[in-house]
Design goal:
Layout: E1 16-19, E2 23-29, H1 35-39, E3 46-49, H2 52-66, E4 70-74, H3 76-87, E5 92-99, H4 102-113, E6 117-123, E7 128-136, E8 139-147, H5 154-158, H6 160-166, E9 183-187, H7 195-206, E10 212-216, H8 220-225, H9 227-236, E11 239-243, H10 244-253, H11 259-268, E12 277-283, E13 287-294, E14 297-304, H12 319-333, H13 339-353, H14 374-378
Parallel strand pairs: 1-5, 1-9, 2-7, 3-8, 5-6, 9-10, 10-11, 11-12
Antiparallel strand pairs: 2-4, 7-8, 12-13, 13-14
Length: 381
């Protein structure tokens, strides 16, 4: 963790800038009927990208068979930003792309309603990305076509308009601070066809600065298909999130015997002054394994996740994304929080989200995200 530099507190300067795919999540509860999964050759607990035509047929059949779906903004980094905003963090911005179509209009309205700051590129020649979430108990089959998100342009990131929203701020608020820290978050799903953008973000905003570069492994197929690109992101990152399955796949790529050895390998390569590399591996409802260190320093710890009755779990879609949101919120706002503090709070947030359909906090939270406090959230049952 950083030693003395605070996360930026300037109202004009985003404390966190996130890049990711923009999706409209279409959630359908299967209610015990798995015939749709069999008919479309899908797994009940899986995530994959499918052709637009197949996704359209799947949505049509699911809606006809199971009834009216629920719509939510989706995409890993976008989910994280939405939960951060709901927790009360206003100084963040999300960057992505949508098409000029019905789904794109619906998404942009949803994001506007959530008061989340965005920097969205519109691409008329490509459809807005969609993901159908087939829910069966605590399992979910996520099937996406990322559409316009695949074609997000580096030129857009470099444009004067985009730079004015995410670039460095020269506000007098920074006058008394040697160098305030900003967080740049790039999801793993964002890597396909856009690695040049990922590298540009790191080199322009994070390399040689106090700013934090953060990534999420997101899926084993991303690691296996875009291995070199993901290795670059992971090795440059100050903070890496993922679940145990993903880290096991990554350990195989690095030819390590287990995740502990992998973490030690990655941390030994990290030699930044006054900062530790942090690696967080979640394992569903069991535990969180986390590692931190710098060069020759290495620490491995375990946090036992609080038990949530299976009957209380409605939808695990976005559980990992909301965990990241909770971690970053505590990391950015706590009074000298420890990693255990961050993980404990992250687990609380994820525990609330999986009781809802879609990646959302419960409606019992205070109406105004601006007045939400950590203490109020933690006091909820």
């Amino acid at each position: 963790m950083t030693n003395d530099s605070p996360i930026s507190s300037c109202d004009r300067c985003p404390r966190l800038v996130a890049f990711g795919n923009v999706l409209l999540d279409i959630s359908v509860e299967l209610r015990g009927d798995s015939s749709i999964l069999k008919d479309f050759d899908l797994k009940e607990d899986d995530q994959r990208e499918i052709p637009a035509e197949k996704l359209a047929r799947l949505v049509s059949v699911a809606v006809e068979t199971c009834g009216t779906p629920k719509y939510n903004p989706g995409g890993s980094a976008l989910n994280t930003c939405r939960i951060l905003r709901a927790l009360g963090e206003k100084n963040i911005i999300f960057c992505g792309a949508v098409g000029v179509d019905e789904y794109g209009i619906k998404l942009e309205q949803m994001l506007s309603d959530s008061s989340l700051n965005t920097c969205i590129q519109t691409l008329p020649e490509h459809p807005t990305g969609t993901c159908i979430c087939l829910i069966s108990g605590d399992k979910r089959s996520l099937n996406a076509n990322i559409g316009a998100s695949l074609h997000f342009k580096k030129e857009f990131v470099s444009s004067r308009w985009c730079q004015s929203k995410i670039g460095s701020c020269n506000s007098a608020a920074h006058a008394d601070v040697d160098e305030e820290v900003r967080v740049f978050y790039v999801e793993g799903y964002f890597v396909p066809e856009k690695f040049a953008i990922c590298k540009h973000i790191y080199e322009k905003y994070c390399k040689g600065t106090a700013n934090l570069f953060v990534t999420n492994l997101n899926a084993t197929y991303i690691l296996q298909t875009y291995t070199k690109e993901m290795q670059y992101l992971i090795e440059q990152s100050d903070l890496v999130f993922g679940n145990l399955t993903e880290f096991i796949a990554l350990a195989e790529i690095y030819e390590c015997d287990d995740v502990d050895q992998l973490a030690k390998c990655l941390i030994r390569k990290y030699l930044k002054i006054n900062r530790e590399k942090i690696i967080v591996a979640t394992d569903a409802s069991r535990c969180v394994r986390y590692y931190h260190g710098n060069g020759s320093s290495f620490h491995a710890e375990t946090f036992q996740v609080p038990v949530i009755p299976s009957k209380a779990v409605i939808d695990t879609t976005g559980a990992g994304d909301s965990f990241v949101a909770g971690f970053l919120y505590k990391y950015m706002n706590g009074e000298a929080p420890t990693l255990t503090d961050c993980i404990r709070y992250a687990s609380k947030v994820a525990g609330k989200v999986i009781r809802q359909v879609g990646c959302n906090l419960p409606s019992s939270l205070p109406a105004s995200p601006m007045t939400q406090t950590t203490e109020e959230f933690e006091s909820l049952n």
